[in-house]
Amino acid sequence: MPMGIGMAHAAPATNAASRQMIQFDIPAQALDSAVLAYAEQSGVQVFFDSRKLAGLNSAGLHGAHAAEDGLRQLLQGTPVRYRFSAAGQVGLERVEADGQALELGATHVESTRDGDWVYMTPRSVSVVTRKQIDQRPPRHAADMLEQTAGVYTAVNQRDPGLSVNIRGVQDYGRVNMNIDGMRQNFSVNGHQQRNGVMFIDPEFVQNVEIDKGTSAGMGGAGVIGGIASFATLDARDLLAPGKEIGGRLRAGHGIGELGNGTYFNGSALFAVGNEVGDILVGHSERHFGDYRSGTQNAGNLGTQMRGKLEDRQAWKSWLNGEVGGMDSVTRSQIFKLGLNLPDEQRLQFSYFETDTDSKDAWTVKDSGSHDYYYRVTGTNDINARNAALDYSFNPNELIDFKAKLYYVTTRQDRWNANNASSENSGNRVEDYTDRYQTDTWGLQLQNTSRWHLFQADSLTFNYGSEAFQDTFRPSTNRIAAVNETESLPYVQGANPKGKRVMASLFGNLSYEHDDWLVVDAGLRYDRYRLTGKTGVTTWMYPEGVTETNLRRQRTDLLFEEDREEGRFSPTFGIAVKPGLEWLQVYTRWGRGWRPPAVTEAYMSGRPHGGGNEMVYPNPFLKAEESHNWELGVNIFKESLLRSGDRFAAKIAYFDTRIDNFSFLDTNASLPGSSVSGIALGRSVYQNNLETTQFRGVEYSLDYDAGDYYGQLSYTHMIGSNDFCSNQFYLGGAQQLVSAGTVLRPVQVGSRIIMLPVRVSRAEANATENNRVSCGDIMGNASYMPADRGSLTLGMRFLDKTLDVGMRLRYSEGNGKNLDTHGYSQIDQAMWPKYKVYDLYASYWMTPSLNLALSLENATDEAYFVAMGDVNNLSLARGRTLSGMLEYRF
């Protein structure tokens, strides 16, 4: 009898995917065929020798189970044990009567594909696999997510930082961006497109999981948009049963003139391991330079960008010239040490570090030559370090315990060029350096218990706690201009010092019946504490004073805050299969809660280093409360059009409503004023008095017939939002009223006589204090993200060793201001429509050696990525050809 193996998505117990519930339907039968059925349905690679399973039988497996739990139950009562050795790989051993184990060998038979589990999960979740990442080598980390339904990224092509937007929601922790569970909470206020970024090297990413909406599980504390989890490689991804040494070498480069600023990109990974433990070490380098943007269909860019109508020649120079200031270097290291302890215990230490250097630049028009050139306005040295200690203990179905202690520190040193004012103007600010640093400590504890009730029912209870602390440590050596006056006695800029601590308890109970009904309910309690010092300097009339000529006086309002608050957030979901095994309908509802971040509440100062703009703090900012609801359909059908093919689809309507949504109000009035609406440039975070709603429809379709395949994803956003707030956000509007007359001594000639004199006093101005203004917003929420989608078509040749394909990336854009640029709002909706075609090929010349080619933007389209940071005005790359050579051993 031949040896057998199955292959698909699942991973060892340390990987997030292995915790997903999988529907099994395996009747009682011979154990070797039952194991093959398990591999087909779970997607786990099972290494075994069928001959050594002869004569053994399995009682079968039914219902929903995690991958490892299902295997444990399938093998129950047989003299066979298992051991996970790599991501999605498990080896079987037969134990003889004398206690000795006979290892069951392995060969390779392909079954279900990576990522299929998302089409069997009754909630909105997506996965980006390593194979998808390799099809289009990412130059920016955001490239990994561009094909994922419901996910956007505000891309600044110069800035390697990644900010994930899920269904229109991003910034300040609304989306939990994490690496192996470690929250990436670095925050620098920057042009309101990315207030919170993370740094991840795509070379070390094994997969990306996107969990949309609120969650009653690990990682959901303070989250209202969703969770973006970037899982890095483990040693076990490079090893296999019986293979104790493994590695991966990758080297890539742009090809010829079509390399277009793509230089060396590659990595080296080495792993050793056995039943005692394993070690992984790795290094990566990524080098990029100035590039040419696309030039075709430039009419889609509209008439307002770079003064197209005012100076056509200059506009052409911007479009056809190189995008300058784009050179960057990123170096990363990874180290993991894992120990397999007795009684199904594992301890692992992880460390990875990314150091990246990049530039800030702006286009400047040369009035003499009518050309645009790029002036470097700053340089960035960013270092992000992550360290974690993980422990797991899984002796039985009642105890599946996991713990993590982690520390993340991200530091940015930014050199800023002088402001170009003349020496004698009094406005000169010399070049200076800012430092921004965010330190995060985190602790996670959780356990999962599982019960099998009767023959067709199962119950799963996941419960635990998480806590994290963010500390912000900014500094600067900036020296104010002669004419510049401090707006606060101690102003430190738009990134304040402060600390936020969050702690959470959660529990989620899931019940499954007979493979057609799934019901789950969860509850979490979040509590936070926010500490910091801030203040506002304004001019106010003195209270309780009656004077003839009453004048405003400088008033310092200082706040030393120590706020604490908590909230319960429930979730509920139900899924049914209405008589068709391949169809599942589900609906989910949940509430979320996000308290304000340090930057939102305490930031103060001049955001651009000069000028008259000011950002003021709001220590009374309320927490956001979300109501999430969705209705979805899962389809997973095998042998649809031909034997052995499979079709999968996930379609969901979502509706997220947020009360007290925090936005940057650009026209706020300070206490002491008598008139509102004349304070443009005075900005402060305020809570939206209207309900903020993000809703739409997501489509993900996937067909694979072996020799050919296709994937389609599309996101359609619906509606728009109004942003309204109190004009006087701290109150304190004042007005002068007549207080009658008083007798005052008045000198008339040589005599002093008493005469009645009119006097005034200051009163609260109720009309102005109650005034509400709308539309004064700056930020990524100003407009709904533009609809976008992608279509991938591919074919496999030469016994599936050669994979070639084409990808279309499309967005209908949001061109509201493309031809009618005005400043009724500071932000403009400048996301032009585009159609971008990519080509790719991957050829495994041997089982260990792969050559991959990628032609990005084959038609040389001029475009911005949907919801890209157009304030930066750097178009995406034009036609670019690159190659990657990969060797595994």
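^ that was protein a. below is b, sequence first then the tokens
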Amino acid sequence: MGELKMFFSRKFKVLLACLLFFVKSCTGQESKGTTVEFLHTNITRLTARSVAARGYRLDEVEHLIIINAPKLEHIAVEDLTQMLALRSLSITQAPLLHRIAPLPPLPELRTLMITTSGLVEVPNLSHVHDNDVANRSQQYLQAVDLEANHIRRIPSHALRIRADQVSLNYNLIEEVPAHAFKNSQISKLSFKGNTKLRRLDDLAFAGNLVLRQLDLSNTGVTSLPTKGLENLETLKIEKTPSLKYIPSIYDFRNLREAFLTHHFHCCAFQFPERHNPARHKLYETQIAVMKQKCNQNDKNPTQDPRKRRSTYSEKLPTLSSDANDTSTASYEYQSWGSEEYSGSLEDEELENFHEPVNGSLGVAYSVECGNFSLSRRREVLCTPQPDALNPCEDVMGWSWLRASVWFVVAAAVVGNTAVLLVLLANHTELTVPRFLMCHLAFSDLCTGLYLFMLAVVDLRSYGEFFNYAYDWQYGVGCKIAGFLSVFSGQLSVFTLTIVTLERWFAITYAIYLERRISLGAAAKIMIGGWMFSILMAGMPLAGVSDYSSTSICLPVESEGVGDAVYQGSLFMTNAVAWVTIVVCYVQIYRSLGGGGEKYGGRAAAAAAERRIANKMALLIGTDLLCWAPVAFFGVTALAGVPLVDVSHGKVLLVFFYPLNACANPFLYAILTKQYRRDLLTLLARTGRCDWLVQRYKLAATPPPTAHTNPSAPPLLLPLVEYNRSTSMNKENGEADNL
């Protein structure tokens, strides 16, 4: 226990030493005043008497430091007026200190730090420098640090101050009301870590004329106002996924750095003409007016250049609706993120702390007619930069891809819908193959619906997707599309494998009718397939990988081991399924080929073998084209060597990934004799297209046999040969449905 106390004692001494060093560095000279320390104190009220009781003269106190005061509840602010030399007030770890009365005039105060305490509202600091009227233009607070309290509200005019830095980090602020900083002059303002901060009023920062740096990282804000931020130079909104829309670059006249959360927000700064066409058009109009003015002045060389510049600046339209906004003379500001505050303002700079200048045109320009120059695009250092997963492009990227996806959608949706309608309408003759075909058609139809959703979003957001990116990628639509994509892919792979196994089993054991897969067994198998597909599609919704990582709503981003295992399992499932299908079809072909060579009808058997071989090759080939490219590039990406980005990966998405969804309904159903019979049966029930039904019946009438034509001599076969022939016919009949 003693060692623990010694450890904390050393820690507080280090903190104290750092604070004193900071105070000295702020003043730029060695402090000659008195530093009063209350370490591990049990005082309940901070008064002038409690300070004097320690043997200090009040008029000599410059630094008042309180650390670890668990019982401190009240600060007698009126007693602080007796400490006329007070430059810094620091209170740390005072959990019972909930409110502080408005601070009186303290002309020398430069630093106020109340951290990790119990404050529930921002203390009123607006009168700190009221008495020093003569030097008021030079008085300012170097730092106001109210970090890690329980602040919920910002009272009106509480921060009507002149300050270099104000930190309200890690509090419980829920809203920043209108005019919260009116008539204040704050250079750096931070709300970092206020996770409950949801709303910023449109006029929240209005009236703060010198704001240069703003930090809203790790908050819950959904929009960013622009009033009062025209002169902003550094903007931080990291780890804030709730921010939907970033204002136009033309709303930030001096912005140089932006540290954001989403890649597509940086696209807005790269392509302002697409982000806000109206503002960009006004910008182009301004350029044209500037050029016209300079050309007119060039034609009149006798005019005084200073008059030309004056006339020019007075008549130009501005992009800002607030033409009388003021700015400050530039000086160096410290970067964010440091626990130390440094006084960055020299005496001569204080004179220009709020020096008004001419109204800004809203664009970077340098004009002297005869030497006209204009920065047509102001560069902003923005992170995170668009990358391979989130490029600054539309959902489909290319025009030919945008047109092609509609043909793919039509083929997948129409083909699988036709299969489902015919198979479900003939429910009285439900067999295992038909049952499996229904599941296959439904899974492929889901793939078509997924592509349809992407095509609609691409059509709606054409040319400016980054303006819609948040609502799409982080909305319900993208989650539904991603779920449909993974669910349909897994269910289709599973069903294709079961269909192949069922046909291999039926043909291999053709003469053993009792060894067929029953409808009940097939139903149990497909229930397992549905559960597996739903599980794999639902994992990104539960936090394993993410559908929102890219505009095509696929779980392609891998940030952890769990994501890599999940994506690897998807690829392995496709690989095992394809190998199984290839092995089964090779066995089927060998089985049918052997029978055709052994028994009679070699020419017919050879033709049947070729037909079956071609169909099997087509089935295997479509599966390979569908799964192999996606699996290959996916595995290389998981291995850390991505060979294709999302822009080119969309070609795989449109032409290879949905290949099965387009081909399966034709290869497995529409082009088979059984489907044509079912379709004509359905047409016959409706009483329409009788001519087509009659034509099919005539075409399907078998040739005359000994039973239909008695004059024809019967073809006699030995009993053994007859049984073998019957078996062959059954096998060929099963093969026709491949």
